[in-house]
Amino acid sequence: MEHAGHRERLRKRYAENGFSGFAEHEILELLLTFAIPRINTNPQAHRLIDRFGSLTGVLEANQKELEAVEGIGPQASTLLTMMLPLLREYEQKKLLPRVRFGNYADLAAYCRTLYLGVCREEFYVLSLDADLHLLAAKRIAEGTPTEVSALPRQVLEELLRNHAACAVISHNHPSGSLMPSQEDVEITLAIQSVLAGVGIRLYDHVLIAGNREYSFTRHHMMDWGSPEEREESELPEAAERPQRKLTGRNEKRKR
């Protein structure tokens, strides 16, 4: 059908370039395709612009005003009036305090959320700034129910992309075993060595099995140059303990 082809062309343009190159009535036309099925939405879009003067005017109108325009029913008016409140929610949420791992309990709790309902092993990289704020959490590998493979290069690339000062890596054991394998230990030490070479501290490797967790740092499985360095990298157990800020973490470790 001709109308179906036109709708598809609008959606393809958006998928390729966003709203770049769209006229105001075309933006409305595309939005209306999600509320008005099967028919050409171009006339309704033009009527809205004619009635309210601009895309801004349309989005600021209330449902009653919108439904006074021919061809605009409750579904279309609801969709259009959702746009600005949705944008406000987005902006407000951006202003909320960022996740900060000031203690081990917070870190473990966050890592557990990554694997809720996951039935295969997955490997995550948590990029952190110097104050332990989470910059990004990225799954870089997924495997089978019993194994997953991640390369030190993949971890490094993700951290450099996010301009991280330090990092946590994490993976899960859907089998329920909380003990790391020899391969887990070897890859952790390899990643730690690679990151140390560019001045990024690997804070911990957190293994999750169900609602339990295993910390490589707390079990002395990391390759620290001295007891003092290990002590600096061990997060307090709970929130009531003093929160530690990283200092001088971007310097390469002396060996």
Quick summary:
With 255 residues, the protein is of the alpha+beta class. 43% of the residues lie in helices and 14% in strands. It has helices at residues 2-17, 24-32, 42-52, 55-60, 63-67, 74-94, 104-113, 152-161, 182-196, 227-232; strands at residues 122-128, 134-142, 166-172, 201-209, 212-215.
Distance between the termini: 70 Å
Q: Low-confidence parts, pLDDT < 50 over ≥5 residues?
A: 239-255
Class by SSE composition: alpha+beta
Give helix and strand order, one letter per element, not per position. HHHHHHHEEHEHEEH
Write the CATH fold name of the largest domain.
Answer: Cytidine Deaminase, domain 2
* Rg of Cα set: 26 Å
Instruction: State which percent range the strand residues make up.
Output: 5-15%
CATH architecture of the largest domain: 3-Layer(aba) Sandwich
The total domain count is: 2
Any idea what the CATH superfamily of the largest domain is called?
Cytidine Deaminase, domain 2
Number of strands: 5
- Mean pLDDT over the full residue set: 86
Shape: elongated
Instruction: Give the C-level CATH assignment of the largest domain.
Output: Alpha Beta
What share of the residues lie within helices? 40-55%
Largest sheet entry: 5 strands, mixed
